[in-house]
Design goal:
By secondary structure, the protein is α/β, with parallel strands linked by helices. It folds into three domains: 191 residues, 3-Layer(bba) Sandwich (FAD/NAD(P)-binding domain); 175 residues, FAD/NAD(P)-binding domain (3-Layer(bba) Sandwich), CATH 3.50.50.60; 75 residues, FAD/NAD-linked reductase, C-terminal dimerisation domain (Enolase-like, domain 1). 18% of the residues lie in helices and 31% in strands. The strands form seven sheets. Strands 1, 2, 5, 6, 7, 8, 19 and 21 form an eight-stranded mixed sheet that branches. β11, α4 and β12 form a beta-alpha-beta unit. The chain is globular and about 60 Å long. The N and C termini lie far apart (56 Å). Bound molecules: flavin-adenine dinucleotide (FAD). The site of flavin-adenine dinucleotide has 36 residues, from α1, β2, α4 and α6.
Length: 466
């Protein structure tokens, strides 16, 4: 087989890349290799501001892509080998595909704690299959240990019901990947599960079509934003959940203990011992190269394929996007990479644009504007959360000022300023500040004269800077 553009991976990065290429190059052949019979597509894309977008991720059959774009062909299989001298790849069933351009979007795998090896009581969460396993085991569990302090762990601690939860975090405040100690304090009341939040009641019926995966295929891409809505994430306790947090702790060992009501004992680095039914390891992801190559890619220390400002790897005509790559260009001041849906989509789209540009011998390809400003919108503990720019003072060497305002259980807004100029912000709740904040970061206006009023609730800063 052969195609001008071959893309590996049916996750957000791969599918966005294929769709953008189909738009730019309607007359060229495109092959998408997907390990799963289902792929991930972006729907309901909504521009909240110039750089902040929100969207849903839907799992859909590969036909939805091939019916929409005549020049796209989807093949089920795994990438086994790349030959960059003769420009072909080998996928499952020994199928050989010649390419002019190859884009690798094979994502990453959960980085489980080392004690997870061969231990059926330790689970990780990545795709629909792993959630099925988790939900089934949780239903029989009275006590679970959740390890990790990022988005997945925070979401689980908030969403799991009827279970005693012991949350093991290595930092001294919760959700440290996204927020500072002040904001985590703001979230603390949400952990008291007896006050039921509306979004924690019975799962909302899903009106979207759900597809079943053919059992012969491998499991698919990382989950979409509303992954928990299809699952009862309930344990076996009669009472609502309770949460105990173990700060500055990591798992030291996990032992089987048949003498106890609980089958396993988790020993923490602090010496604490927890008896429980299940351990969930939510400690991030790591890309793995599971195929043969005849030339080695230039890799980051965590095994990501390093790409330049046009998403090109160190090997000619091979590009990469999403969780499997590392943005190896000089980043703009207010942007940095993070393994998120938003960035997987942006990189997939942009890699397509760059491949098409190279194919058409365009001399200058301007880098996409989305790499100017870091933005992330999500929900944590039932609140809308928007992160902009250097929201945690990243890159500022502790040389910055913080302004913040908080109304308990309502909103939390934090601004990071350096030399009177706004560098980043955390907006929790319906603050309505995102557009103004975005403009102030991008324009780097000197805010020194207005500092006192920036977060004054009686001053409408949107009006002020209009
Ligand atoms: C439970 C969970 C919750 C998350 N929550 C959030 C969140 O709230 N917000 C957010 O922004 N991000 C979140 N993320 C992260 C987000 O899902 C990822 O950053 C994003 O999905 C990465 O997209 P990708 O296309 O690069 O990789 P993936 O979605 O992992 O897709 C990679 C694809 O490549 C395929 N593949 C792998 N190896 C091969 C091979 N050898 N041959 C062929 N195909 C292969 C895989 O099967 C898969 O289909 C979450 C992740 C998880 C697991």
């Amino acid at each position: 087989m052969e195609a001008t553009f071959v893309i590996v991976g049916g996750g957000i990065a791969g599918v966005s890349c294929a769709e953008t290429l189909a738009y730019y190059e309607p007359n060229e052949s495109i092959i998408l290799i997907s390990e799963s019979s289902l792929i991930k597509t972006v729907t309901n894309l909504l521009a909240i501001t110039q750089s902040i977008t929100s969207f849903n991720i839907e799992e859909t059959t590969t036909n939805s892509l091939t019916n929409k774009y005549q020049n796209v062909n989807v093949l089920n299989g795994s990438l086994l080998e790349i030959n960059d001298v003769e420009n072909f790849i080998i996928i499952s069933k020994n199928i050989k595909i010649n390419y002019k351009y190859l884009c690798l979007c094979y994502g990453a795998k959960p980085k489980l704690i080392p004690q997870a090896k061969n231990n059926p009581f330790v689970v990780g969460i990545r795709d629909t299959d792993s959630v099925d396993v988790f939900a089934e085991k949780l239903a029989k569990s009275k006590k679970v240990v959740i390890v990790g302090n990022g988005g997945i762990a925070s979401e689980l601690v908030y969403k799991i019901q009827n279970t005693e939860i012991e949350w093991v975090i290595k930092d001294n405040h919760i959700t440290a990947t996204f927020v500072d100690p002040g904001a985590s304090e703001f979230f603390q009341p949400s952990l008291k599960k007896d006050q039921k939040q509306p979004d924690l009641l019975e799962p909302i019926p899903n009106k979207r079509m759900r597809y079943e995966e053919d059992a012969t295929y491998k499991s698919g891409a990382a989950l979409g934003p509303d992954w928990y809505k299809h699952f009862q994430i309930k344990g076996a306790c009669e009472l609502p959940s309770s949460v105990k947090i173990h700060y500055k702790s990591e798992v030291f060992d996990i032992l089987n203990d048949d003498s106890s009501e609980y089958p396993i004992k988790v020993i923490l680095t602090t010496g604490d011992e927890i008896y429980c039914n299940l351990v969930v390891s939510a400690t991030g992801v790591e890309p793995k190269i599971e195929f043969k190559t005849n030339t080695n890619f230039k890799l980051s220390p965590s095994n990501e394929i390093i790409v330049n400002e046009t998403m090109k790897s160190s090997i000619p005509n091979i590009y990469a996007a999403g969780d499997c790559c590392s943005a190896g260009w000089e980043h703009s001041k207010h942007w940095f990479p993070m393994k998120l849906w938003t960035q997987a989509r942006q990189m997939g789209n942009y890699a397509a644009k760059c491949m098409s540009g190279d194919f058409n011998k365009e001399e200058v390809i301007l880098q996409d504007f989305c790499f100017e400003l870091f933005t992330h919108t999500t929900r944590l503990f039932g609140y809308k959360v928007i992160l902009l720019g250097l929201y945690n003072g990243q890159k500022l060497d502790n040389n910055y000022e913080i302004l913040f305002r908080m109304t308990k259980e309502h909103e939390y807004a934090k601004f990071i300023l350096q030399d009177g100029r706004l560098q980043g912000a955390v907006l929790i709740g319906d603050t309505d500040l995102e557009e103004t904040v975005e403009n102030l970061i991008l324009s780097q206006l000197d805010l020194s004269p207005y500092k006192e009023d920036l977060l004054n609730p009686d001053v409408d800063i949107e009006d002020y800077f209009d």
